[in-house]
Amino acid sequence: WTKSYFREWLYNAKWFHKHHLWMTYESVITGLFPFFVTITVIRLFYVGVWNIVLILVTIQLVGLVKSIYACFLRRNPIMIFMSVYSMLYMTSLLPAKYWAILTINKSGWGTSGRKKIVTNFIPLVPLIAWFLILGGGLAYSIYREVQIHVPNIDRLRLIYIGVGLG
């Protein structure tokens, strides 16, 4: 579905000038939203460990607030599971959007590999790339935190931490 969404979005971009200004604005924002999210997440993952914690907590809190609102609106406590969507979006759907853009010219169905589940590992490529990018950012942030804070820790505390880690 993502591939067809981007295909239609690019096709309709030719007629943005004929649409109402608000509709054009909304279309541009929804089309560019994955790019904004990606740039923000990658930047925060390469800046520091506490920024990673901040973004993960913020994403989960926003999802939780929206799901609590949905619980009250629908009067159904099962809607609390809607908060999981934010993590699903960040871990799986966002890289899938880039895969859809990269394979936009392929006319085959993206789900045709369901018949050959063991041999169709190509859809894992964007997920692996995404986790490598974020894992690199996490490793870099941890390295920077260690470089900044370890020289300031006294020797006794380092021995204590080393014994605690095993």
Features:
71% helix, 166 residues, mainly alpha
Describe this entry's structure for a reader.
With 166 residues, this protein is mainly alpha-helical. It has six helices and no strands. The model has no long low-confidence stretch (mean pLDDT 80).
Please describe the topology of this protein.
Layout: H1 2-12, H2 21-45, H3 49-74, H4 84-102, H5 124-149, H6 155-165
Helix pairs in contact: 1-4, 2-5, 3-4, 4-5
Concise structural overview:
The chain is mostly helical and 166 residues long.
Query: What is the quaternary state of this protein?
Result: single chain
Radius of gyration: 21 Å
Counting DSSP H or I runs of 4 or more residues, the number of helices is 6
Mean pLDDT: 80
Binned strand content? under 5%
Name the shape in a single word: extended
Biggest sheet architecture: none
Helical residue percent band: over 70%
